[in-house]
Amino acid sequence: MDSLFDSQAAQQRAKVAPLAVRMRPRTLDEFVGQSHIAGPDSYLRRMIEADALTSLILFGPAGTGKTTLARIIAGSTAAHFEEVSAVTGTVKDLRAAIKNAGDRLAIQEQRTILFIDEIHRFSKSQQDALLHAVEDRIVVLIGATTENPYFEVNSPLVSRSRVLELKALDDDDIRTLLLRAIEDERGFAGKLKVDDGAMDTLTLTAGGDARVALTSLELAAQLAQHSKQPQHITLQLVQDVMPSRMLPYDKGGDMHYDVISAFIKSMRGSDPDAALYWLARMLHGGEDPKFIARRILVFASEDIGNADPQALLIADAAFRSAEIIGMPECRINLAQAAVYMALAPKSNTSYMGIEKALADVQTGKAQPVPSHLRDRTRPGSDEYGPYLYPHSYPNKWVQQQYLPKDKKRGDYYKPGTVGWEGRAGARLDEIIAQDTDID
Questions:
Q1: 161 and 38, same structural domain?
Q2: What's the mean pLDDT in 127-131?
Q3: What rounded mean pLDDT belongs to the chain?
């Protein structure tokens, strides 16, 4: 049982805690957003109401409520709540927590919720140390992570847990949290006035992160204390504490791959506006411009190919600019290349052709080189069939077998109909019309 001193200490800590901590929802009814997880009739709500705890991995961007949900679950049950840091915790710490949980279960018949924030930071051996305790329900694990657990958390641990994905909060959710902080006794108790423009900017610049929104409100309120209107937050105050919008972007995580995927698909879909938007998201998030340029370089051959051979030269120039010039100037070169790629005619025939050829090489039978195509410098080459030199014939073409014996034209390459490739395809049709099987 906590002593009076412990209670007073907790109250004092609460007074000086950041606004985002003081305003942390205490129940599911106070929880904002994530209706697909915590709304009426949701799995999580039913689980809590039935006190039927199972191990969970909460996966989503920062500021979406992962830690809050873990604390709500703990506060809604009779289970003991214990937290281990994935940054400073060791295998020894985990084993001690598991032993205590086992003793608590055996002696007091009380379950333990073991909360591990940023669980993906634990090493494989640390995660493996949890398996037996989770499987035997000595602990109910709640792991929180900003990374995709299917890639960053051990598969056996994922298979023993329910994965719940949290989404970034929308503007209405952020506004609800800000208004609550202004009115609630734990926040500003209705004594703070926030202009409409300031509220709009706080909402927008949060980028779906509740912690960012509440921290910005608190900083603006602190700054207001030194102004002529101590309880009045203006747009200028908000811009002073948060001059630019905070959008989620992690150069090594899921958001990194999601945004580059959107960028590539926007160029493939011939939408230059979307391509520029996702390019801006990456640049704003601090992405390496050479990484972006490499993806454009691959795209030029994979998705445009010979429909517009110039695209590869544009992409190569963009990569050189990223390498030599760097940011911020190379953003212009990247933008030019992205717009060119989006508006260029598209063809993936070269990409599809090499994939088919590789599949044949890897899984088909080994094909001998036709004798007339073999190297002529080795002994015995006089017995090879005659090679016909195309430059010695009209139109620089002569009928001759180049493919292995059991292959035919069109097995790998089927030209597109747009741009340069359309014209090249017409030339290929002329050649095929003259071509016949050669014994």
A1: yes
A2: 85
A3: 86
pLDDT-derived band of residue 381, with 50, 70 and 90 as boundaries? Answer: confident
Place of tokens 């208004």: 179
Residues 6+ apart with CB under 8 A from 302: 348, 351
109: tokens are 């018949």
Q: Look at residues 241, 264, 283 and tell me which one is the last residue of a structural domain.
A: 241
User: Do 104 and 249 form a contact (C-beta atoms < 8 A)?
Assistant: no
pLDDT band at 121 (very low <50, low <70, confident <90, very high): confident
Is position 154 within any domain?
yes
Q: Could you tell me if 270 and 289 lie in one domain?
A: yes
Q: Looking at residue 178, which CATH number applies to its domain? A: 1.10.8.60
Same domain, 421 and 320: no
- Decide if 247 is inside a domain: no
Helices 330-343 and 272-284 pack at an angle, to 10 degrees, of 150
Domain range for 236 is 171-241
Would 107 be classed as within a structural domain? Answer: yes
Residue 24 domain-assigned (yes or no): no
Give the C-alpha distances (Å, rounded to integers) separating 434 from 198, 395, 427, 430, 431.
74, 12, 11, 7, 5
The more confident residue out of 4 and 111 is: 111
In this structure, the answer to whether residues 81 and 161 fall within a common structural domain is yes
Contact 231, 224 (CB under 8 A): yes
Q: Are residues 160 and 135 in the same domain?
A: yes
Mean pLDDT of 87-95: 81
Number of domains present in the structure of the chain: 4
The residue count for the chain: 439
pLDDT at 4: 47
